[in-house]
Design a protein that fits this description.
By secondary structure, the protein is an alpha/beta fold. It contains eleven helices and eight strands. The chain has an eight-stranded parallel beta sheet with strand order 3-2-1-8-7-6-5-4. Helix 1 crosses helix 11 and helix 5 packs across helix 7. The longest helix is centred in the C-terminal third of the chain and has 18 residues, at 179-196. The chain is globular, with a radius of gyration of 17 Å. It binds phosphoenolpyruvate (PEP). The site of phosphoenolpyruvate has 13 residues, from strand 8.
Length: 249
């Protein structure tokens, strides 16, 4: 079922104390929106966050995971470890993981499979670089990122896939895609999924936009037909700003 979702990616920010502080501010915020709300703290704070939010409708999600179920992968975290601390959703393919940790579409396909095999939901991120957009290649790049990592899946697996279109040139830069640029790309993404599967799959997948979403621009971006929510970086670190975005729905 297509849902509205606003997810905050905290990245490598917030100590345990700061995590608890931000969570206690988040639960006090007025939530008049119907959107599902998620926050993604650092690995080390996931268990405390999940405990803290046990009675809340805010879901705790992970920023990454390894594809293997266990073994000699120093420093890595598996799907079953996440499930063990009540984390049932994982962000995969964030552009920072692709750029700084060399994550390829092929590696991401394995991570997606591991998450789904563990009954987890995946927020799959992708998006073009500025050079791709300047060369009018954004649709080609986005289509291949989705196809390479997700088009081996059965249609039924898409129930647990959320797409997050994040143009790299708009992440943490203060530069946002215009609402029309976001809508055009989201429409293209939905069509791409429809061409591979069918309109039922395409119309039920949530497609989030990410890239410098702020309280001042969220309403207009979220008003677009094919934009089902947002993945929020910088603005998710302040409870008031994050909830102003959530309540933009
Ligand atoms: C992100 O990193 O997913 C993101 C959208 O960041 P920001 O909102 O800071 O641009």
């Amino acid at each position: 079922m297509r849902k509205n979702i606003v997810a905050g990616n905290w990245k490598m920010n917030n100590s345990l104390q700061e995590t608890k502080q931000l969570l206690s501010e988040l639960v006090k915020q007025d939530k008049s929106s119907q959107a599902e709300v998620m926050v993604a703290p650092a690995f080390i704070n996931l268990e405390s966050a999940a405990q803290f939010l046990k009675e809340s409708t805010i879901e705790v999600v992970a920023q990454n995971m390894h594809f293997a179920s266990n073994g000699a992968y120093t420093g890595e975290i598996s799907a079953s470890m996440l499930k063990g601390v009540a984390v049932n959703t994982v962000i995969l393919g964030h552009s920072e993981r692709r750029a700084y940790f060399n994550e390829t579409d092929e590696l991401l396909a394995k991570k997606v499979d591991a998450a789904l095999a563990n009954n987890m939901r995946v927020i799959f991120c992708f998006g073009e670089e500025l050079s791709d957009r300047k060369a009018n290649n954004e649709e080609k790049v986005v289509e291949s990122q989705i196809a390479n990592a997700l088009f081996h899946l059965e249609a039924s697996a898409w129930e647990n896939i959320v797409l997050a279109y994040e143009p790299v040139w708009a992440i943490g830069t203060g530069e946002t895609a215009t609402p029309n640029q976001a809508q055009d790309m989201h429409q293209f993404i939905r069509k791409t999924v429809e061409n591979k599967y069918d309109s039922a799959v395409a119309n039920s997948v949530s497609i989030l936009y990410g890239g410098s979403v702020k309280p001042t621009n969220a309403k207009e971006i979220f008003s677009k037909e094919d934009v089902d929510g947002g993945l929020i970086g910088g603005a998710s670190l302040k409870a008031e700003d994050f909830f102003a975005i959530v309540n933009a729905f």
